[in-house]
Amino acid sequence: MNSHKPHVEAFVVFAGIAAAVKGLKLIFAGPHEWIYQSVAPALFLAVPAFVLLSRKTDPAVFTGLTKNKILQGIKVGLVCAVVILPLFVVGYWVFHGLILGRKIHFHIGPNVGMIFLRQFFVVAFPEEFLFRGYIQGRLDQRWNSGKSVFGGKVGPALIVAAALFALGHFITKPMLFRFGTFFPALLFGWIKERSGSVAGPILFHALANVTIFILEGSV
Length: 219
Fold this sequence. Notes:
Elements: H1 6-27, H2 33-54, H3 60-63, H4 67-99, H5 112-142, E1 147-149, E2 152-154, H6 156-172, H7 182-195, H8 199-216
Antiparallel strand pairs: 1-2
């Protein structure tokens, strides 16, 4: 891969991981799906880390996983969660309860802690490391432009990374609604730009997934 074309490198890495994950999902379906669920997150972490280290680049340059930036990321992620997730819950209640007339019984459940840990370490951390850390970071080296929106740069790198995030979700499970992940991915990308670390999007991503899990179990 040409080091002078970081965007090409990012696309190649995405394509390779997407193909590998799709293959794993097809091979290890059914009772062996746990193998796919274990290997896929490892690929999201190992492949970009290997590519960066092979170029003598510290992954922290792209992920912002340093002490000061992690703390800033957590701060921004929590603020976004406090502001946005309650609005999402209200919107969910209005749509399903008032418009569709369904009975909603909000129930957190005893396993919410374990669900959060799984969403944090198995889903959010690997996905944000790959898409917001490596891919968005590499694309930003090619398209280092954009407009500041509430303190976070929004430009081609963020948008393309979000599109690849949605495409990746569709590839693993080809259903049209999976393209909807493009929109939260824009927010994940903004949190990364605002804080300079993937710690923020990881935290918000995990909290959002747990919120959706609780809501879906309440209808």
